[in-house]
Design goal:
Elements (H helix, E strand, L loop, with lengths): L1 H5 L8 H8 L5 H30 L7 H18 L64 H9 L10 H12 L3 E5 L2 E6 L10 E7 L6 H15 L2 E5 L2 E2 L2 E2 L2 H19 L3 E8 L1 H15 L4 E7 L11 H4 L12 E7 L9 H14 L3 E2 L3 E3 L11 H12 L6
Parallel strand pairs: 3-4, 3-7, 7-8, 8-9, 9-10, 9-11
Antiparallel strand pairs: 1-2, 2-4, 5-6
Length: 402
């Protein structure tokens, strides 16, 4: 406050009178002229700065380091105005009005514009957070599943198929009466059937059946639909014979996949697929399993019913191509059956099946121990309910590939 008082005019005593009393008269004019000419401008700036700091010092606010510095500057300025401390000679006329101390600093007490204000993006996640860029477009899931359309696919009958006679005609009529259907597939045809409730089931299973020599799809449905109905499973019985000519294993597999794709287009892909073959059809399941693994196909489990290749060969050409490759059948799951009374191929069928299942294991696949029914012959698997249910129970333990 001393510096503040120095700027206040003294009562009854002007600045000129103060200077006249303290300055030596003999050199007052000359000294003042010399000093003033060199210091006037610089002192003026100091006074202006000192006054600003003094305004802070004289305010009622809490002093800050900047205020203290301002007060020191004001004291120095007052010394220059009131006189040299040693000689008492006034340095300059300090007739400067007091700065209005009622005006606080413009920024004092005023928060910065962004103080207390959250950043515009605080708490707001970026638009891409949680969305990983895989670099690939999303997969089209296709239309929603329509159980009515699926049921219609299984029950539709192609009226252009050639008529059958005798037992075959009877079996076809029974298939259609049970809600099954007949569809052309790449020049041949398939028999389709699912039990009641299959289209609405949470878990859906279809067994693809390959007939034997001189066989046909309606016969496969006749043999197996009773067992499958107990488990709620459907059937796709595929023909690979036309005018006495059988498809190769590769062509048969392609026909199987075409039939599955056609079914999936109407019923969705969340269907567990198993493959089952009898006699010639059983022999087709071995190269078919290989091709399915190579294609990362949909087949989960395979039942080989009394058919492979002679123990002395030859093997199917598809298997010959990978013979000796220890991992060629990796992922294959097989279950085999034979009747001990079956020597249809000129040798015991159980030897043929034992040899074929051993080849699967030696090439990285899994094959259950051969199930043999004592005294039964070729084509008798369907008559042994215990054996059939053992095979179907095993299929149910497998993890679906879809």
């Amino acid at each position: 406050m001393f510096a503040c008082n120095l700027l206040t005019p003294l009562p009854n005593q002007g600045l000129g009178r103060f200077r006249a009393e303290f300055a030596p008269k003999r050199n007052r004019r000359d000294w003042h002229r010399e000093y003033h000419s060199g210091m006037q401008n610089r002192v003026g700036w100091l006074v202006l700065i000192g006054g600003i700091f003094l305004s802070n010092a004289c305010s009622t606010e809490t002093p800050s380091p900047m205020m203290d510095a301002g007060r020191d500057a004001n004291v120095a300025a007052n010394d220059m105005a009131t006189g040299d401390p040693d000689t008492g000679v006034p340095l300059m006329d300090m007739a400067v009005p007091r700065i209005d101390m009622s005006m606080p600093r413009l920024d004092m007490g005023m928060p910065l514009m962004d103080m207390g204000m959250p950043r515009m993006d605080m708490g707001m996640p970026h638009t891409d957070m949680g969305m990983a860029d895989t670099g690939t477009p999303p997969v089209d899931a296709g239309p929603p599943y329509d159980p009515i359309a699926c049921a219609a696919w299984f029950s539709s009958v192609d009226a252009t198929l050639p008529a059958l006679a005798g037992l075959r005609a009877t079996q076809r009529t029974a298939l259609i009466s049970a809600g099954g259907g007949l569809r052309r597939e790449t020049g041949k045809y398939i028999a389709t059937w699912v039990p009641t409730g299959w289209v609405d089931a949470s878990s859906r299973v279809v067994v693809v059946a390959l007939h034997g020599t001189d066989g046909y799809p309606e016969a496969d449905w006749t043999d197996w639909h009773g067992y499958f109905e107990e488990r709620g499973w459907g059937v796709l019985a595929v023909s690979y014979l036309d005018a006495g000519v059988y498809d190769s294993a590769t062509a048969t597999y392609e026909r199987v996949i075409a039939s599955i794709d056609d079914m999936n287009s109407a019923c969705g892909a969340d269907i567990t697929i198993h493959l089952m073959g009898f006699s010639r059809g059983s022999a087709q399941t071995f190269p078919g399993s290989l091709l399915d693994r190579m294609a990362d196909g949909p087949i989960t489990g395979v039942i080989a019913n009394a058919g492979a290749w002679p123990p002395a060969g030859p093997m199917p050409p598809e298997l010959v191509a990978v013979d000796g490759v220890a991992t060629s059948m990796t992922g294959v799951q097989m279950w085999g059956w034979c009747g001990t009374g079956d020597d249809t191929h000129g040798h015991p069928m159980c030897d043929e099946m034992t040899n074929a299942l051993a080849w699967v294991r030696a090439h990285g696949g899994h094959a259950e121990d051969l199930y043999s029914s004592v005294g039964l012959g070729h084509g008798d698997f369907k008559t042994d309910a215990v054996a059939v249910n053992a095979a179907l129970d095993w299929l149910e333990t497998l993890t679906p590939r879809h």
